[in-house]
Amino acid sequence: MSSLRFNSVLLEISNAMSADQLNEIKFLVQQEIGKRNLEKIGSGRELFQLFRERGKLAEDNTAFLSELLKEIKRQDLSDKIDNFNIQPEPDDGLSEEEKAKLKIATEVIAENLGKSWRKLGRKLGLSETKLESISKKHPTDLEETAVELLKEWGKSQGAEAQTKMLIDALRACQLNMTNTLLNWKLLFKKTANKKVKSMQKSHESNSSD
């Protein structure tokens, strides 16, 4: 299963929940998660991330969240998460390598972009109407705004969505710190992958001797 697709489903569910519904879920999980851990949670996405850290939510483990959504009378959202594992994964034409790079880019940019998200969005070719729509979805959460921005950009580009386009846009916007962090993370992943492949070849060679 694609983690990108799973994250997209979770984001859709987060966006569809009201503040009251979020608080209802936080109340329901106080005993299992802990009241103190829930105090700083301000969005569904943050709550779902906490669930994942606690082993309560994963691509192949959605029952916990599904039941909570039923408890707050959101059967539609419960069905959405239940259907995740049975829906065919859409073919966006991207290679697995590029998908992995885009996932890293999304994480780095979301964590570091801050108030410059509109500037980057314009450079990526998103319309002012689309940017305003993104802003209304997450008026107080810049990290979620950045995730939504990159999701919309990815949808608009389809198979043409490439990490290099994000790097070029960051450079053009003079978002140098974020650009440097992204390049470092991608280089680290590339180096790590080479080491893994080298170890695999060494193991295969030893096995054949």
UniProtKB/TrEMBL annotation:
Residues 5-83 form the DED domain. One of its GO terms (biological process) is positive regulation of innate immune response. CDD domains: DED_FADD. Residues 102-171 form the Death domain. Pfam families: Death, DED. One of its GO terms (molecular function) is death receptor binding. InterPro entries: DEATH-like_dom_sf, Death_dom, DED_dom, FADD. PANTHER family: FAS-ASSOCIATED DEATH DOMAIN PROTEIN, FAS-ASSOCIATING DEATH DOMAIN-CONTAINING PROTEIN FADD. This is Fas (tnfrsf6)-associated via death domain.
